[in-house]
Amino acid sequence: MINVENLDDANNFIEIKDNYVFFWGLDISSKKFRINALIRELMKKYDITEDEVIEISDDDTYQFYKEVYENNPTTKKENLKRKKTKYIQVLKQIRALIADETDLIANLANICAALKYGMNGFFWVGFYFVKGGDLVLGPYQGPPACTRIKIPQGVCGACAQKKETIIVPDVDKFPGHIACSSHSKSEIVVPLIEDGKVWGVLDVDSDEYDKFDEVDKKYLEEICGIVAKSP
Ligand code: SME
Questions:
Q1: Cβ of 138 less than 6 Å from ligand 1
Q2: Which residue owns the Cα nearest ligand 1 atom 6?
Q3: Which residues of the chain have pLDDT under 50?
Q4: What is the structure's pLDDT at 2?
Q5: 173 Cα: distance to centroid of ligand 1 (angstroms)
Q6: Which of 27, 73, 129, 159 is paired with 12 by a 20 to 30 Å CA distance?
Q7: Is the C-beta atom of 136 inside 6 A of ligand 1?
Q8: Would you tell me which CATH number, out of the four given (3.30.450.40, 3.90.79.10, 3.40.50.150, 2.40.50.100), belongs to the domain 73-225?
Q9: Over the chain, what HEC string results?
Q10: Domain boundaries for CATH 3.30.450.40 within the chain
C-alpha cells in the first residue's frame, strides 16, 4: 500500500511515500529534535517507525528519496502530466517570442531562457552550430560550457552525425560523453535540420539521472522544427 501525502507546515516540507516520512529540516539540530508533533502524528497514522523517518539533508538521502518517489506509480503519472502541461506552455511562449523576429541568435537565446526557466530540472540548455567538421557553442543558459566539439565526438557530435535525437539517461555510461560540468547527469540532444542537412543541435542537460524521455523528445523536436535557420 502506497501513501502519498504532501503537507507544508510552514517550516518543513513533509512527504509520506511507501511507508517513509521524508522531511526537509531547516536548522542544524539533531533529527530527533526535528521530529516535531506533525511528523509524530503522521508516524502514528501510517504506522511508521523512527527508522522510517528520513531527513533530506545530503545527496545520499535525497537520492534515496528520489528512488522511492520515482518508483511510485501515482507520482510518476502526475509528473508526466505536469511535464506535458509545462511543455505546452513553454511552446506557446516560444511561438510568441519568435513570431515577429527573424534574427536567429535572438530567437535561440530566448528559446534557451524559456526552456531553462519554464521546465523543471533543466540544468543547462543551449545550441551548438555546425561549422566545418565542428560544433561551435551558440546561445545557452547555464554554467560555462565546452566551446568546440568535433563531430562525431560526445553526445552532441553523435547527434549531429546520426541526424537523430539522442537520450542519455546516465552520461557516465555514454562512451565518449564530454563532461562540461560534473553536475550533469543525464542529457538529450536534438538535431536542427534544414533541407536534410544538420546545421546545429539543441543540447539539454539535467543534474538528475534519467530526466529525459519520449515526452521531452516530442516537444524539443517540435521546438527545433519551428526554428528557421534562415529568415
Ligand atoms: N555533454 C555534451 C557536451 C556539451 S555540454 O554538456 C554543454 C556532449 O557529450 O556532447
A1: no
A2: 180
A3: 1-12, 28-29
A4: 34
A5: 14
A6: 73
A7: no
A8: 3.30.450.40
A9: CCCCEEEECCCCEEEEECCEEEEECCCCCCHHHHCCHHHHHHHHHCCCCHHHEEECCCHHHHHHHHHHHHCCHHHHHHHHHHHHHHHHHHHHHHHHHHHCCCCHHHHHHHHHHHHHHHCCCCCEEEEEEEECCEEEEEEEECCCCCCEEECCCHHHHHHHHHCCCEEECCHHHCCCCCCCCCCCCEEEEEEEEECCEEEEEEEEEECCCCCCCHHHHHHHHHHHHCCCCCC
A10: 73-225
